[in-house]
Design goal:
Blueprint: E1 16-20, E2 28-29, E3 33-36, E4 42-49, E5 61-63, E6 68-77, E7 85-90, E8 93-100, E9 103-110, E10 113-119, E11 130-131, E12 146-147, E13 151-159, E14 165-173, E15 185-186, H1 193-196, E16 220-222, E17 236-241, E18 250-257, E19 262-264, E20 266-267, E21 273-274, E22 276-278, E23 287-291, E24 296-302, E25 322-328, E26 335-342, E27 351-359, E28 362-369, E29 382-388
Antiparallel strand pairs: 1-29, 2-4, 3-4, 4-6, 5-6, 6-7, 8-9, 9-10, 10-11, 12-13, 13-14, 14-15, 16-17, 17-18, 18-19, 18-22, 20-21, 23-24, 24-25, 25-26, 27-28, 28-29
C-alpha cells in the first residue's frame, strides 16, 4: 500500500487558477513560462491575444503584419502557488523566463524580432523592454534557456529555403550585461526539416506515418546531465522537437554544434540520419528540465489520446487534455511519475503547453487551459498551476 502524500493548494487535490479571462472578453492566452527562484518565489509569464486586448491597461504591442494586438503578463506567488499577483505587463509574446545570477530575464518576440526585459529584484520590478534584433521574421516558443557552461542559448524558428521554416539559435555570455544588443549573436538558419533529414524516412521504423505533414515546431534544447552517456559531447547540445509525424509520443532529434550554432542531423554508425526518438509527450509542446540532484531529466507533456492515435487522429486535439510527468537518466528509458493536469471533453477541457520547475522536493507546473467561455481548442482562457509533492518518490 502506498503511503499518502501531503497536499497543498494547487497540488493533487486540484489545480489553482493563476489567471483567467474576464467574462465576456474576447481574449485567449498563449503558452506560459514558469520560473522557481531559490527563495521559493514563483514567477509565471504568458501573453494575451484577441480583439479586446487593445482596450487593456498596461503595455501592449501591435503586430502590424497581422494587425493583431498583444500583451504579456508577469505574475508572482510568494505562497507556493496559492495566490498570484500581477507584477508587470509587456508588449511582446511567446516569452521565456530565466535567471542569470541575481537577475531575472524575460525573452520574447514581437512582430518577428526578439525583445528582452530584466528584473534585478526577483520579479518585483522590471526594466523597459529592449528590442534586441530589429524586425526579423522569427517565431519563438516559450522554452527553457539552455547553457553550455559559458553561454545562454535559445532556439527559435526562422524562414528557410522554399518558404518553409528552419531552426536558428541565439547565444549570449552568462554573467554579461544581457541588455546589451552586442551580447547576442545568431547562428545560421537550418534547412527545412525534410531537407536536413533527407533519407531518414526510409530508415525510420514506420515514423512518420504516411502523408503526415512534417515541419519544425517548439524546439527544445537539451544538455545531457550524464557525462558518460553515449550521446554526450562537450562540443554540442541536443535538440528534441515535437515535429508532427502522425504518431503520438515520438519527437525529432538533432544536434547543435556549439562552435558554429549549426543544427545538424545525428548520424548512425552507418552514417545515416537518425531522426526520430520515442519520447513521452513528444508529439506536442513539452517542457524538459534537468534534475541536477539526481542527474536525471524530467519531462512534463501530453499523455496523448486514450488508445493509440495514428495519422490525422494523432494531430487533432484529443492529445491536449491530459498532462503527465516522466523521469529518465538517459532520454530513452522513461518512468511515469504521475498525472499533472487533466480536463474533460470539449474546448473547456483543453490542458496543454506546460512549463515546469523543480521547487525543493516538489515539481510545479503551469499550463494553458480551456474555460467555460472557450468556443474551440485554441481559445484557452485560463492559466492553471499544480504541484506534484515529493515527485521523486513516485518513480515507478
Amino acid at each position: 500500500m502506498t503511503e499518502a502524500l501531503p497536499v497543498k493548494a494547487g497540488s493533487d487535490a486540484g489545480p489553482a487558477v493563476v489567471y483567467s479571462v474576464e467574462e465576456g472578453k474576447r481574449i485567449s492566452f498563449g503558452p506560459p513560462s514558469l520560473l522557481a527562484l531559490p527563495n521559493g518565489k514563483l514567477l509565471a509569464a504568458f501573453d494575451q491575444a484577441g480583439p479586446d486586448v487593445k482596450g487593456l491597461n498596461g503595455k501592449k504591442g501591435h503586430d502590424a503584419k497581422r494587425n493583431r494586438w498583444m500583451q504579456g503578463l508577469v505574475l508572482s506567488s510568494g505562497d507556493g502557488g496559492v495566490s498570484w499577483q500581477r507584477v508587470a505587463t509587456y508588449p511582446f509574446r511567446r516569452a521565456s523566463l530565466f535567471r542569470d545570477g541575481g537577475d531575472v530575464y524575460l525573452l520574447g518576440e514581437a512582430s518577428g524580432g526578439l525583445c528582452l526585459m530584466r528584473s534585478p529584484d526577483g520579479g518585483s520590478s522590471w526594466s523597459a523592454p529592449m528590442d534586441l534584433t530589429g524586425d526579423l521574421d522569427v517565431w519563438l516558443s516559450p522554452a527553457r534557456m539552455e547553457s553550455d557552461g559559458d553561454s545562454w542559448i535559445m532556439g527559435c524558428m526562422a524562414p528557410a529555403s522554399g518558404g518553409e521554416f528552419g531552426i536558428t539559435c541565439w547565444r549570449a555570455p552568462r554573467g554579461a550585461s544581457l541588455m546589451n544588443r552586442k551580447a547576442w549573436s545568431q547562428g545560421p538558419v537550418s534547412p527545412p526539416l525534410g531537407v536536413l533529414f533527407a533519407g531518414a524516412m526510409e530508415t525510420s521504423c514506420g515514423v512518420p506515418w504516411p502523408r503526415s505533414t512534417l515541419a519544425w515546431r517548439h524546439p527544445a534544447l537539451v544538455r545531457l546531465v550524464d557525462s558518460n552517456h553515449p550521446w554526450h559531447d562537450s562540443k554540442s547540445l541536443h535538440l528534441l522537437v515535437p515535429a508532427a509525424c502522425g504518431r503520438e509520443h515520438w519527437a525529432l532529434m538533432a544536434r547543435l554544434d556549439l562552435a558554429s550554432l549549426e543544427v545538424k542531423a545525428v548520424r548512425t554508425g552507418e552514417d545515416l540520419p537518425w531522426a526520430w526518438l520515442p519520447l513521452p509527450g513528444g508529439h506536442a509542446k513539452f517542457d524538459l528540465l534537468a534534475d541536477e540532484s539526481t542527474r536525471s531529466h524530467v519531462l512534463v507533456g501530453s499523455r496523448g489520446s486514450e488508445g493509440l492515435a495514428l495519422g490525422k487522429d494523432a494531430e487533432r486535439d484529443g492529445h491536449a487534455r491530459r498532462l503527465g510527468a516522466w523521469v529518465s537518466e538517459n532520454l530513452v528509458d522513461w518512468r511515469f511519475c504521475g498525472p499533472v493536469l487533466s480536463g474533460g471533453e470539449g474546448p473547456s477541457g483543453i490542458r496543454c503547453d506546460p512549463s515546469a520547475a523543480i521547487c525543493g522536493n516538489d515539481l510545479v507546473a503551469v499550463c494553458r487551459a480551456g474555460g467555460p467561455g472557450s468556443r474551440n481548442a485554441r481559445e484557452t482562457t485560463q492559466i492553471l498551476f499544480t504541484r506534484l509533492m515529493e515527485f521523486r518518490s513516485r518513480r515507478g
